[in-house]
Amino acid sequence: MPLKPLSALILLIFSAFSAAHAEQVFRRGNIGEPDSLDPHMTTSGYAGNIIFDMFVGLTTLDPDINIIPGAAESWTVSPDGKTYTFKMRSGAVWSDGHPVTAGDFEYAFRRTLDPATASVAAPLLYMIEDARAVNTGQKPLEALGVTAVDDTTFVVKLNNPTPYFLELIAHRCFPVPRWAIEAHGREWTRPENIVVNGAFKLTEWLPQNRVTVARNPSFYDAENVKLDQVQTFITEDQGSAFKRYRADELDMIANFPPSQLDWIRENLPQDLRMTQNLGLFYYTFNTSRPPFDDVRIRNALAMTIDRDLITERIMRGGELPAYSIVPPGARKGYEPPAPEWAAWPKDRRIAKAKELMAAAGYGPVNPLTFTFMYNADDIQKRAALAAAQAWKAIGVNAELLSTDLNNLNATLRNGEYQAARYQWFSEYSDPTSFLYLLESDSVGDNHSKYNNPEYDAVMAKVYGELDLDKRRELMREAEAIVLRNAPITPINFYVSKRLIKPYIKGIHNNPRGINLSRWVSVEK
Q1: Which residues pair with 429 in a beta bridge?
Q2: In Å, how far are 86, 154, 351 from 150, measured between CA atoms?
Q3: Of 176, 182, 439, 486, whose Cβ has the fewest other Cβ atoms within 10 Å?
């Protein structure tokens, strides 16, 4: 008889111990298959969600996306705002035990800007001294304004003061292991070869299924990382993702069918997270080829789209119709311009669009027909159908072609398309993060192939202007130029719509929708 209470006590203690040491696994949905896990070879957010967990830049982000020390424990900025001196974090090591040094960052910055690397992110770093000349092959790598003074001191020189530089390098120019790249080439990111300096290390990559990372015990802050594993599932189809979330197969999904929003508000209010996002949903036209080398056609299509219908009946999440490139709130004090026709009634827009099409040589006898690409998603399909229906009112036929997100990405970059949908999320809190998309040398992300010397000249002035009021006016001037030329047409500004299980802690709402897994825990 006395043994029974003792056995029960032992069982209770064992259960409590097991619960306290249960493996914490975070299962999240991702809108697309990563196009690369090499930090220097992608700018896509669906790859970044995983890369951010595996690598740490000189700076990094806290749960509220504030800049905090990363691989550098401190830094100083010269009085003229053009020289940054970083002190490397003492004792930080790679997952294979190599020390993390200033030399790793000198290699990373040079590799990103090396024309042989063909990094799509390179133009984002043209504020660095001689970066443009290096990236275009006019100067050697050694000319780039980055220097590892010794193992613990790293210096970056900029062409002009750049107020968002520390924010940008929190997720650009991540360090990469030179020795692993030299040993394995492009296969260095395979689970058996990869070396990381972040909170998690890649253990599994099943294409079109799942990417798994496990806690990296060598990470400098590993003792404060709660998760043992993060499983990222490819959930490009919103309906499927929602079903898996309801079946408790996923702890978080980045989006869900808008048709389910009312049901979610009633039945899962504690799971719903909605935040206005610094993101732009837009349609892009290939301006390097007929017919979209004609500004009249681009403007006609832009002014015909019913943005209110798309946001209110298709998106249904409080998205704002977009008539500018830059979202509201990108930087305090900046008011984006809008095209003149934005205030016109629908009938007037359609009449003007028909007039433009006729001037370009198209009409009932000679209708314009083109192919419009979008990623295979129910929402994008419905939005594309709405746009195509609107274009019919001016005698234009759009042949819709769906594809997966990675193929769309690659097709836009190589310019083998006529018109397509895409999206862009802020790289940093400044209008230039969006205006960058239309610069002629933004080769990785200027999908419209827009090349306007006037626009480039104004943007060059933006980057060199120190007076904040003058800088704002120059950015408005630049944005007004692209709105007149319409190489891309804004559709709406995004709202982040996520479902997160209540037991998932550490994910804070923020306008950029970035949440590092090092801050997350599972508390069932």
Answers
A1: none
A2: 11, 7, 66
A3: 182
CB-based burial, 8-36: b 16+ in 10 Å, e otherwise: eeeeeeeeeeeeeeeebebbbbbbbbbbb
Express each pLDDT in 381-417 by its tens digit. Answer: 999 999 999 999 999 999 999 999 889 999 999 999 9
219 and 234 in a single domain? The answer is: yes
Among the residue ranges 94-98, 143-147, 197-201, 315-319, the one predicted with the least confidence is 315-319
> What pLDDT sits at residue 1?
38
Residue 15 has pLDDT above 50, yes or no: no
| Sign, Cα dihedral of 39, 45, 49, 50 | negative
Instruction: Kindly tell me if the per-residue pLDDT of 324 is higher than 80.
Output: yes
Domain boundary (135, 152, 175) is at: 175
Q: What is the pLDDT of residue 17?
A: 41
Q: What is the pLDDT of residue 151?
A: 98
Say if strands 200-206 and 210-215 run parallel, antiparallel, or are unpaired.
Answer: antiparallel
**Do 284 and 433 fall into the same domain?**
yes
State whether the Cα torsion 301-44-163-450 is positive or negative: negative
Judge if 104 and 161 occupy the same domain: yes
Q: How far apart are CA 200 and CA 189, in angstroms?
A: 13
Q: What is the mean pLDDT of residues 256-268?
A: 95
b or e along 159-186 (b: 16 or more beta carbons within 10 Å of the residue's beta carbon)?
bebbebbbbbbbbbbbbbbbebbeebee
Question: In b/e form, how buried is each residue of 440-477, taking b as 16+ CB within 10 angstroms?
Answer: ebbbbbbbbbbebeebbebbeebbebeeeeebbebbbb
| Residue 464 parent element (H or E) | helix 453-464
Does 1 reside within a domain? Answer: no
* Residue entry with tokens 């042989």: 116
Domain range for 347? 276-496
Given a contact cutoff of 8 angstroms between Cβ atoms, the answer to whether 450 and 438 are in contact is: yes
| Spatial contact of 204 and 37, defined as CB atoms under 8 Å apart | no
User: Does position 3 have pLDDT exceeding 90, yes or no?
Assistant: no
| pTM, to two decimals | 0.89
Pairing of strands 25-30, 229-234: parallel
Query: Could you tell me what percentage of the chain is helix, strand and coil, using 3-state DSSP and rounding each to the nearest 5?
Result: 35, 20, 40
User: Is position 102 within any domain?
Assistant: yes
